[in-house]
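Name: Cbb3-type cytochrome c oxidase subunit
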Amino acid sequence: MSTAWSWFVIALSALNILGLVWLLWYTARRRPGDPKPEETSHYWDGDITEYNKPMPRWWIQGFYLTIVFAIAYVAWYGGMGHYAGYSGWTSQKEHEIDKAASDANLAETFRPYDGQPIDRLAAEPEARKLGASIFANTCATCHGSSAQGAIGYPNLTDDIWHWGGEPQTILQTVLDGREGVMPEWGPVLTSMGGDNAIDYTVAYVRALGTPGQSLQNDYLASQGKKLYDGVCVACHGVEGKGNRELGAPDLTDRYWLYGSSKEALRQSIAKGRHGVMPAHRAMLGETRARLVAAYVWSLSNPPGGKKPVPASAPAGSAH
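Structure predicted for Cbb3-type cytochrome c oxidase subunit:
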């Protein structure tokens, strides 16, 4: 708030208080020539008269006391522009005190799990329960309440991990985030293979996700392989198995983060993609990040040992 606005608020508050004092004083006294309280000429049913008597003195004094209380309150707690009041109280300080108390309670709750390995936490029901609660408050916005993701947001319940599904790798993802970039290859591919280059590459990428498909009778895919070998192989590998160090997905598992339709793949190849998993180290801290990482790891590595069904959705679906 600027100094001018601060003085405006102070002046407005002072005028309101003085105006109330004057109005109370002016209306609480009778003046010479005022009609008597019963001379209102308001009558009903012949014997019911409306009077206009002054308010009782105790009520008037009580009103004055409320004004004195308001002045003392503003003097102590502030409330007029930049003036902070004699107490120095602010809502920000109050919030910081409450937050410190709440953080202390949370720290005590999470203390038994400090530094515990992810797989050990995943085996403890209470730890998984806490991790699920943290997930619901922090991660479900993107990955969904069931952790099955959506277009552009990975499914955390299957066996597909673009950056690796080891416990420590998941913890690193939660703490420091990830940034997956698929460059815009449209101009490069077009310069190499002409106007149909993107369609050729799409055909080959779709063929990679179709086991047993031969390129001998698929002209588009066979042309796309040449382009793939010249551009895409650097990240996704010769066999299309991807590279977890780069976050480059496996193109043979039929899991498609942004959809596997021809249009979705065309968009990915021609225009690129930029996926960001925000870092949560500052927000959650080490222990809470461990708990939520343990919960996420348990979704694909349940304590009973039953592994999730591998992703094998139809080619036209999207995860």
